[in-house]
Specification:
The chain is α+β, with helices and mostly antiparallel strands and 447 residues long. The protein is built from twelve helices and 14 strands. The chain has two domains: 295 residues, no CATH class; 43 residues, no CATH class. The radius of gyration is 33 Å and the shape is flat. The model has no long low-confidence stretch (mean pLDDT 85). Pfam families: SPP1_portal (PF05133). InterPro entries: Portal_protein_SPP1_Gp6-like.
Length: 447
Amino acid sequence: MLTDLSFLDSGKSFPPDQERERLEEYKKNEQLFHTKVPQPWLNHFNEIAQRLGRTRAEISTIFGYQQLISKKTADFTCGEPPTLETEQDTDAMLKLMERLEFFPKLYEAFIDISRFGNAVVKFKGKDVTAVSPMFWFPVCDSGDLKKITHHVISYPIDPDENGLMRKLYTEIHTPGMIVTRINAFNQQGIGGLIEEKAEQTGLEDFAVQVLTNVTCSSDLFGVSDYSEINNLIERLIWRFSCIDNVLDKHSAPTMSGPSDALEHDEKFGTSFLNLGKYFARDTNDSPDLHYITWDGNLDSSFKEAEMLFNQLYILSEMGQAFADAGGADSSGTALKLRLVSPRVKAARLVKLNNARVKRMICTLCQLNGINVDYDGLTLHWNDGLPIDETEQINNLTTATGGKSIMSRYSALKQRGLTDSQVEAEIDQIQAEDAAMQPLQLGVIGNE
């Protein structure tokens, strides 16, 4: 863990040694997300193959469960964007979020939370952008290792004709300020300073915000969703590759028959079978020419795979989200009950990151001249599951004894209309109601 900025000094290696293990884990998770087998896994597979007398492992089956877990996690968390409510100008805020494509960027952030354990976002100008955690180096207070004093974003740039980077780009973020440096760089490490400039951000907080997965008191970084399941998936890949090898042998069976069916090649000194010939059998006792069939006895392998899949469903907290989540005739309540585990996981991530996302939205509004108070902003997170409106209305109607459960204004807001659209719709409804009323004639009395 870094406690000062000395790792950026000239002559130091980059990335710093104390961060290499974390970055290697990120690199492996990045490969798994893109359905590639990491080199450490391939090395392990080759070691097993050599112990079994093979030259090397032949991996033909690769599972994309890591990518699926990350996408499902993001789907349940913010696949359906959270509903924003504020005491100020809600319409202007929503238009800004749409123009800046904030919610797609938030979806990307939750993908990173799942695969890396953290997501790093940076305010740049009046916009926000995602930064790979592989380029993020937090510097902590030596007296409180959970308190970050500097956010450092650093990565090599400017490749030469051989693809080797020649410069190191660095941003050092503190509350209200960014210091940008460019150093010379080569394989030996960081070189001399080429350029440095400081910039005021106008923000009271860091221009970098970090979203997180579950953390513990002994570690600053969030836990990746992949850490609990990588061993299971590695085992599944190996097991299915072994099954593939057995089935491949079945697809190329060996023939058996009498020795006089073979012909001898004098030139090469080998015997071969000419399948274009016909071999007659005079009696039932004569040797037959046939293919050898072989029972691979794969039942135990499939039972092991089934057990590993069950553990995968449990440890990933995905359960039915990996399989068929239900039929078309399922009610909304039944569907939610079947998917309770991934919904609990999504709720946990929401609880961990709700305050940070609110802070990001308020900062974006501030940068774009929109006044949004943090305490007056409310986020209603959705799980992305379809809403059974009939079931929901029936439950509310029963609970209220058949009385109205919401105003026209609230009902129209739930349809996704803006404040001005709701007011225009209510005015139109009132005008239509007035037009439908019968003409009221006054009674003329006798004088």
